[in-house]
Amino acid sequence: MALSVTRERDVDLRVESVEGGGGGLSRVEQGLEVEFDRATVVRKRRSVGARTDRGTWVRIERRQLSRLREHGWDGTECAEALTDIAKPQWLKSVAWKDLTDGAMWRADETTLLPGHPVGTAVLATGPQLPEEWWRDLNASLDALAGQRTARIATPDTELITQALVNRTIQAAFPARADTAIRTWVPAHADLNWANTTGPQFCLFDWEDWGNAPQGLDSASLLGASLAVPALADRVRRERHRDLESRDGKVMTLFVFAKFAGPNAHPGDPRVSVARQEAAQLIQELQAA
């Protein structure tokens, strides 16, 4: 007799019901023994979050089983072992398999953020951030890079490898340059303006962290800032040691390639700047 195979399907939690089904809010409430404030629910493509009645935050994530084989998904829990980084404290989690949908669900409970997200992932106007914010950003990223882990980062939920770096850059910027990575360090791997808080700095959403080429986080924040020249310049100054390193230049090409390649959105104000900077970076890598 043939065994039935559960067919995986892509789900966008911004439009799917989050009350019932395999990953319903009520199921998480029961598992974590909390009640959600429905007025605080935040819905993203692959996650849903809400504040609880005990003054904590719960993030619920759905991932296909096929992705778990390669990526894992306990990043928030594993990040609790990291030290000297401004981030929420992990408290508890529950996980379960949806037998009808080919997916795994996980809910992580953490302490509340000290403020609101600085903005959307990519900014169009400059935020008003105190000097202490930049100091804490630098301290956290430097502390993270100095630690050790066996995890491999998954930016955009894709395991980062040398082959991925080469393929991504070549597809967008086909000029020949040596993009071999020399130094791998722990990285958040999803550093953007929607995953940081202000005016007090805190870095959250640690699902994809792990070892990555040096400079990935700094390049990611730069890429999210290019539409605001003064903000991009500030990121360059603050993270110059990463961005001016050889691997940092490769990572900047990698980040820019994701939004400034041949299929770039015509309305993205970052594209022309990214392409100009990419041409300069390729020349520098060719000359090195």
Topology:
Elements: H1 25-32, E1 42-43, E2 47-51, E3 56-64, H2 65-71, H3 75-78, E4 90-98, E5 103-111, E6 116-117, H4 131-145, H5 162-172, E7 184-187, E8 197-198, E9 210-213, H6 216-223, H7 229-238, H8 240-243, H9 246-260, H10 271-287
Antiparallel strand pairs: 1-2, 2-3, 3-5, 4-5, 6-8, 7-9
Helix pairs in contact: 5-9, 6-7, 6-9, 9-10
Brief overview, please?
With 288 residues, this protein is α+β, with helices and mostly antiparallel strands. Helix content is 34%, strand content 16%.
Order of helices and strands: HEEEHHEEEHHEEEHHHHH
Provide the CATH top-level class of the largest domain. Answer: Alpha Beta
> What ranges have pLDDT less than 50 throughout 5 or more consecutive residues?
1-6
CATH topology of the largest domain: Aminoglycoside 3'-phosphotransferase, Chain: A, domain 2
Q: What about the largest sheet?
A: 5 strands, antiparallel
Overall average residue pLDDT: 91
Shape descriptor reads globular
Order of strands in the sheet with most strands? 1-2-3-5-4
Query: How big a fraction of the residues is strand?
Result: 15-25%
Determine the number of helices (DSSP H or I, runs of at least 4 residues): 10
What is the CA-based Rg, rounded? 20 Å
Give the CATH architecture of the largest domain.
Alpha-Beta Complex
Give the helix proportion (percent range): 25-40%
Alpha-beta classification: alpha+beta
Strand tally, please?
9
Distance between the termini: 62 Å
